[in-house]
């Protein structure tokens, strides 16, 4: 698997070659990220949960979903780069935090929809 | 910089230990991703572009923005894992696509706001 | 049902009394709207489609979903006001557009997931 | 200004004529709403705050922004209808709530970026 560091450099070079840095404020990049996540949701919105689980086997939808995941990743990487944040380390740190808040015992036992035990970091 | 592969495994283990896989359909994970991107936007929404560029130096906002980037990355990683997509490769492939559509010459010369020349992949 | 016009004036007054107009650029309001939609998604993300259909009967989730719908509506109304757009008329015009593109006959007959026949305006 | 009640009925009829009700679970509609908000953000993301304030005067962007506002409103209206929520009343109630939390005196005096005094309902 190629590295995030390599992707980060390529996205940075892509923007610099085109003289786009002035557009790449954190606000703008966050908006762009939200826009691409919206496009990803649009590919899945009318599918049942089961259809969504099989989407990558669909000849038309599979490539589109992959392209949207690609766009989301490009913007997330660029935003983290502009903010000077190590993406993966920030995620690992947050996961550790969540691990303390949602221990395995309490998460397995509780079916509470209120406490946010359904997901890391929620 | 730690690797995406390592993060992917840790997020997968985190979910499995808590028996959360049944909640992790692509639809649900895409919704969760959008929710976390929303939280990230909320941290930046009232800042001026200049304030947003300096946000990581702020003692209160800096850590919060980093935590949200962490959450977004966790969900993006988990979603890609469940879909069987290599995050970084999908991004590199999309970047290459965009490179063909928005060549350096045309992107630098054109100030068109309509053609999407402002950003990779738009 | 109270009117959108009345809501628009109250939201405007709310902002003016607090001297918030300078924060209410269309970009900022669009980000705030996305943030609130994210909060709405977060309330529904782990529910099954059936659970989501019954959510308003839940004593805890019902009021929270209603509050998020309220927040989304507040920001959408404020954004439309700042842009000088008549919300309802813009929606009616778009619906008419969509009606021409997705006629009843073609929409009922086709189960195509590709053509966007699943929803108005997609 | 046409009423939300009229729009609600037209959107409902639009969906029923095309036999789309089975796709219109609250989860799906919330995802569709997020998708359209994403499209709206995409129209504004590279503009400066000042350019965004003038966007409706732009011959190309103005109509596109108006169309996206229309789409967002269509989905919000449909979602509220399916959930049995009075959109405008939910917003008025939330505004009243926010009015109690962010009084005029405290909001005008405080420039705190931490307390959420920048916006109603945040």
Automatic annotation (TrEMBL), chains A, B, C, D:
One of its GO terms (biological process) is nucleoside triphosphate catabolic process. One of its GO terms (molecular function) is nucleoside triphosphate diphosphatase activity. This is Nucleotide pyrophosphohydrolase.
